Amino acid sequence: MTETWNATDPGVLRLPSGRLVRGRALRKPLPAGTTPTYAVYLLGKQPPDVPWEARWLRWPDFRLPGDRAQAAAVLREAWKRAADERVEIACGGGRGRTGTALACLAVLDGVPAGEAVEYVRRNYDRRAVETPWQKRYVRRFAD
Description:
alpha/beta
């Protein structure tokens, strides 16, 4: 068992269950302090290697995941691991794809799908989930 994030760390979203997940922009430097134990990188191309366990989910900028079944499985694993690990979700800018994935984790955590985008905007970044199709993806995530 590993420690989870500190709730006051930059980019950390507290889900209703108490799970903590960090969202961040890969274009910015790695925040000082604790590193993830598990990460999901949402990018159009393979990310560079990192010294912690990481999954790459092919997800081009401003779009949706290429394989939705794989995305659901990867996000479900991230949600489960966030119960007792430091899970990070990240894309280039840390808002669109990251916000969409965080909203999907919120749905898995019990937030109604129609309220998950607002939940993430209120508790992570007010500009999270950037496109209408990303919003629709979240609303349909639990289907």
